[in-house]
Design goal:
about 650 residues, 4 domains, seven-stranded mixed sheet, about 35% helix, globular
C-alpha cells in the first residue's frame, strides 16, 4: 500500500542501524506522516504492547491486525486462523435485533467420507459456523463431564446432529390436519404461519419475502416491521477504519468551521411581529416551598376537577406523551373548550421558545386553518400551555383503529395536501417543526355534506428556527439534533445547518408509514445509524451517502461511516482499544420494499411513488420546498382511476399486512 511504503521509507531513514524502536518513537513517526496525537495513540493501543521491536514487525502489526508476534510458527498459525473465521462471521453477520440469521433445516458440516476422526483438541480449533458459534456455551459455564461418563459412539453423535436442526423448525400456529391458503401467493398447505398483526396465514417463502427473517419459533409476529430492514456488512477495527480513511480521504473535508454570530432579531423575523411582552401567571401555594415539596405534590396531584390559573376547569385527560400530558378543559372566562397541556420539565427558557413559536405561527395562520392557536401559558407547580381545541383524532390513532384506512391512496393524499400546506406556512414564518409524524397530524372529519376531511399539524415542542434566519447558526450541531429521530433527514444525521427542507423529508416518511403501517423507529434501540441506513434504502442509494453531503459535515466522518467507495453508517461495538465498527446496510432498496413490486402498481400508486421520490432527495440544497410539492400532480390533479385490477393474492403491500 502507498501509506505502508511511506512509513517504510521514513523508518529506514530515521531509525538506528538495527532497525528497532520503542513505542514513543513509533508514535512520533506516525504523527510525522500525518496522524494526530489522538489517532496515533488509538492505533498503537489497537496493536497491543510494543517494546523495542523492528520496524518491519511493527508495520506487520499495523497493517495485518494480527496482534503481537507469537513464539512459534505453530502458535502463530492457529490464532490467525481463528481470527480469520471470526472476521468472516462478522462480515456476514446480521444484527440480531433486526434480522435473525438462524438457518432453518441447514445441516451441520461433517467429516468427509473416508477421513480419519480428528482429536478433540483439533476439532475445537476448527472455525465454527455462525449457528455453532451462537449456540456454543461459554467455556467457563460449561458443565464438566463426570469421570464415569462414556463418550457416545460417533454414529450416534452424527444422528443427533442431523436431527438437531429439525428441533428448531418454527412452530406453526395450526392444527396438523388443517389445510390453509397463503394470503400472499395462494399456496394451499398445512405448513403456514399466522401473522399476529393481521391474523392471516402465510407460507414460509412469503413470510421471508415480507419480513426478511424466518418466522419466530412460537409462530408469532416479529413485531411491527420497519420501512426498510437493516443488515450488518463488513466489520472494521478502529485502527483499520482510520487507516482506510487516510488512504481514501474525501477532498475538501473537514469544512471550514463557521463563525458563531449573534442572532439579529430584525433579520430573523420575517413575520414582522417584533419584540413583545407576554404576561404569564404564576400560582403560589402558601403551604408549598422547596423543590422536594413541589416534586412530591406534583407526583400525587390529580388535575381532573381542578381549576387551574383560576380559569381552566380540567374535565378529563385526552392524551399523554414523553414531554406533555393533554387535558380537555372548560375555559370559565370564554365558556369554550380548550386543550390544557401539562409540560414536563418546562423551564422559563423553553416557555419563552413556545411563546415565540406561537406568535410566529399565529402571524401566518390567524384563522387557525392549519394549526391550533396558543392562547395562554402559566405556572402551577409545573408549566402549562393552553391551546384551542381541535375536534379530531391524530392519524396514528386512526391507523390503529382502521388499518385499511390509509391503504386508500385518496386518504393519504388528504394528509399530504394539508400537511404540505401547513409546512408552506411554517416556511414563511421561518419555523422548522422538527417533529412531523403521524401522531402529530390531526385528522378533522368533514363537518358538512359539501366539505371534505382535512388535517392540522400540532405540537411545536421540538420546533426551531430556520438556520438561514439565524445568521447561519448551526443549532443541529450545537444541540445534537432535535425532534423525532425516525423522521430525521440525512442532514440532521450529519449535523448540517437545518432549513425548512427537513420537514419535507419528515412528512414524506410519515406518508409512507401511514400507507404501509410500518415505521422507521420502533424502540429505543433504533439509533441514528439504523435510521440513516433505512433512509439510504428508501432512496436506493447503493453507494451510501453522497460525497458532497459528507464533505459539508462538521462531524468526524472517519469514525461514523465506511470509507470510499461507499459511505454507510457504522455502529460501534465493544470498547477501546479493541472496539469494532459494524457497517449497517439496507436489506432492500427503493420504494418497492414499501409499496410492493413496481409491476403491481396501479395508476394511483404510480403517481404517489413519483411524489415520494420527488420529496426524498438526500441533499437539502436540491430537495424541493413544500410549495414545490403542492404543485405536483399528486396534489393538484384528481387521482386517476386504477388501471390494474386487484388480484386475489395481492402484492406484499396490498395484502392484509
Amino acid at each position: 500500500m502507498e501509506l505502508r511504503g511511506k512509513l517504510e521509507d521514513a523508518f529506514q531513514n530515521c531509525l538506528p542501524s538495527d532497525g528497532t524502536a520503542d513505542r514513543d518513537d513509533y508514535a512520533k513517526f506516525l504523527v510525522a506522516v500525518g496522524l494526530s496525537d489522538k489517532e496515533a495513540k488509538t492505533l498503537l493501543d489497537g496493536v497491543g504492547p510494543i517494546e523495542h521491536i523492528k520496524y518491519n514487525d511493527f508495520l506487520e502489526l499495523v497493517f495485518s491486525g494480527a496482534g503481537p508476534p507469537a513464539e512459534t510458527e505453530q502458535s502463530k498459525a492457529e490464532p490467525a486462523k481463528t481470527e480469520q473465521s471470526k472476521e468472516e462471521l462478522d462480515a456476514n453477520a446480521v444484527d440480531e435485533s433486526y434480522v435473525d440469521t438462524m438457518k432453518i433445516g441447514e445441516p451441520k458440516i461433517e467429516d468427509e467420507p473416508g477421513s480419519e476422526p480428528k482429536p478433540q483438541d483439533e476439532l475445537s480449533a476448527e472455525p465454527k459456523t455462525q449457528e455453532d458459534a451462537s449456540e456454543e456455551p461459554k467455556p467457563e459455564l460449561s458443565p464438566k463431564a463426570e469421570p464415569s461418563e462414556e463418550p457416545k459412539p460417533q454414529e450416534e453423535a452424527k444422528e443427533e446432529e442431523k436431527e438437531e436442526p429439525k428441533a428448531k423448525e418454527p412452530k406453526q400456529k395450526k392444527e396438523k390436519s388443517d389445510v390453509k391458503k397463503c394470503e400472499e401467493c395462494g399456496l394451499k398447505s398445512s405448513h403456514l404461519y399466522q401473522d399476529d398483526l393481521d391474523l392471516s396465514w402465510y407460507c414460509y417463502s412469503c413470510w421471508i419475502s415480507w419480513y426478511s427473517i424466518p418466522p419466530p419459533e412460537d409462530g408469532s409476529s416479529p413485531g411491527i416491521p420497519r420501512l426498510v430492514n437493516v443488515v450488518s456488512g463488513k466489520t472494521f477495527q478502529d485502527c483499520e477504519l482510520l487507516f482506510s480513511w487516510i488512504e481514501k480521504p474525501i477532498t475538501g473535508w473537514p469544512p471550514q468551521r463557521s463563525i458563531t454570530r449573534p442572532v439579529n432579531s430584525v433579520d430573523g423575523d420575517p413575520t414582522g411581529i417584533g419584540k413583545s411582552f407576554v404576561p404569564v401567571n404564576v400560582t403560589i401555594h402558601p403551604g408549598l416551598v422547596g423543590s422536594h415539596a413541589r416534586q412530591a405534590s406534583c407526583h400525587e396531584r390529580q388535575s381532573v376537577g381542578e381549576v387551574l390559573s383560576g380559569r381552566y376547569r380540567i374535565e378529563h385527560i385526552v392524551g399523554a406523551g414523553h414531554f406533555a400530558k393533554a387535558f380537555l378543559a372548560h375555559d370559565i372566562q370564554t365558556d369554550k373548550k380548550v386543550c390544557v397541556k401539562r409540560q414536563n420539565n418546562l423551564t422559563i427558557e423553553l416557555m419563552t421558545d413556545l411563546l415565540t413559536i406561537g406568535k410566529r405561527v399565529e402571524s401566518v395562520d390567524p384563522d387557525e386553518s392549519n394549526f391550533p392557536k396558543l392562547v395562554d401559558a402559566f405556572w402551577d407547580m409545573v408549566g402549562y400551555t393552553v391551546e384551542t381545541l381541535l375536534e379530531g383524532r391524530n392519524c396514528l390513532e386512526m391507523l390503529n383503529q382502521n388499518p385499511a384506512m390509509f391503504k386508500d391512496v385518496g386518504n393519504v393524499k388528504i394528509v399530504a395536501d394539508g400537511g404540505f400546506a401547513a409546512l408552506k406556512l411554517l416556511s414563511e414564518a421561518g419555523i422548522v417543526h422538527c417533529d412531523v409524524k403521524p401522531d402529530n397530524i390531526m385528522w378533522i372529519e368533514a363537518d358538512g355534506p359539501e366539505s371534505k376531511p382535512r388535517v392540522k399539524l400540532v405540537d411545536f415542542g421540538c420546533s426551531r428556527l430556520d438556520s438561514r434566519l439565524e445568521s447561519g447558526r448551526n443549532w443541529a450541531l450545537a444541540e445534537g439534533g432535535a425532534g423525532h429521530t425516525g423522521k430525521w433527514p440525512p442532514e440532521m444525521h450529519l449535523r448540517l445547518a437545518i432549513t425548512d427542507r427537513a420537514d419535507v423529508w419528515g412528512l414524506a416518511v410519515a406518508l409512507l408509514e401511514l400507507y404501509s403501517k410500518r415505521f422507521m423507529w420502533n424502540c429505543e434501540a433504533d439509533t441514528s445509524e439504523f435510521i440513516l441506513a433505512q433512509c439510504l434504502g428508501l432512496v436506493n442509494a447503493k453507494d451510501g451517502l453522497p460525497q458532497d453531503l459528507m464533505r459539508r459535515s462538521p462531524l468526524d466522518i472517519r469514525q461514523l461511516y465506511t470509507p470510499a467507495p461507499s459511505f454507510f453508517p457504522v455502529k460501534r461495538t465493544g470498547s477501546a482499544p479493541n472496539a469494532k465498527q459494524k457497517e449497517l446496510r439496507p436489506a432492500t432498496w427503493g420504494l418497492e420494499c414499501v409499496l410492493g413490486p413496481e409491476e403491481t402498481w396501479d395508476a394511483k400508486k404510480q403517481i404517489f411513488a413519483d411524489f415520494i421520490k420527488t420529496a426524498l432527495v438526500m441533499d437539502p440544497l436540491h430537495r424541493p420546498s413544500a410549495l414545490d410539492l403542492l404543485q405536483h400532480a399528486f396534489l393538484c390533479q384528481a387521482l386517476p382511476e386504477s388501471e390494474l385490477e386487484p388480484t386475489a393474492a395481492g402484492s406484499p403491500s396490498d395484502a392484509a399486512h
